[in-house]
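For the sake of transparency, this paper describes our internal protein records without simplification. The tokens are whole numbers drawn from a learned vocabulary of local backbone shapes. One such record is reproduced below, unchanged from the form in which we store it.

. . .
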Amino acid sequence: MNKTLPYKTKQFFFVLIKISIVVGAFYFIYNKLANNESLQFYTFVDFTLKKNVFTPKNIILLFFLSGFNWFFEILKWKTLVAFVKKITFKNALEQSLGALTASLFTPNRIGEYGAKAIYYTPDFRKRIVLINLLSNLLQMAVTVILGIIGLCFLTTNYEVNLDYYNLAIALAISLMAIFLIGFGVKKSKFTIKGLSLEKVRQFILKFPKKKLLLGFIFSLVRYALFSFQFYYLLQLFGVDITYFNAMVIITSMYVLASIIPSIFIFDVVIKGSVALYLFTLIEVNELIVLSIITLMWLLNFVLPSIFGGYYVLNFNFPKSED
């Protein structure tokens, strides 16, 4: 006997799941702010108020930078997805912010892949997951390229205690792993839910180079925006540093924080730890660094995830005819 849940019961559970995601995301944000051992929330608020950070002019500029950061992320998503399905900027906005909220408390934001995929019918979902992977790889490529340049200047101009032996071993292992994976993709017939590694490789190779170039440019613009935002916050807190010297440390910080294996829940802590070490090279106060890291997180993740909560609550599965 085939027993199925009544339509109203399914709708009730569907609404309950959406509410749970939003509540979980907001609780995660609250918990990070209320139980941060590195920086107590009241200390953070009191310090920023004393530094007079929240003037109308500063708030407008900081919001402007965060807004354009996400504008180019949404534009990148719209551009890349157009390879398999054309969507409007509004659709891309809904998917990007909704996926951010849904993935905020998942390890390494892995939930973003599934969250974006469910905006599409099943026949599109595998390709959407691959496009999301490409989007993240483009952003990572910018981070790594600029980070390596930054690290070169950093090690030249400052006395940095890096274990070069272990670093060389890690690099050799990484290159070997990339080679083995690349070789294995060609030879392997291994499949995941009907999607073989060879098909993944073919999909990436057939992806329009113009769209990849645009995606890379949008990733580069995003990087320029949030790195300048970090520099601007340094200025607001009274740190006397040139833009070039700041970028040397900022680019090094982002690449080092990106390659450290982490769970996204502790992402702020890791970035804070790396930043504390690097900014001690120019004798920046620890409280300033932790306050800036927290503000960057609030502006570029918490704020858009609040808007994303609206899209999660209003989400409906796509109709098959779409």
Observations:
- Residues 7-313 form one domain.
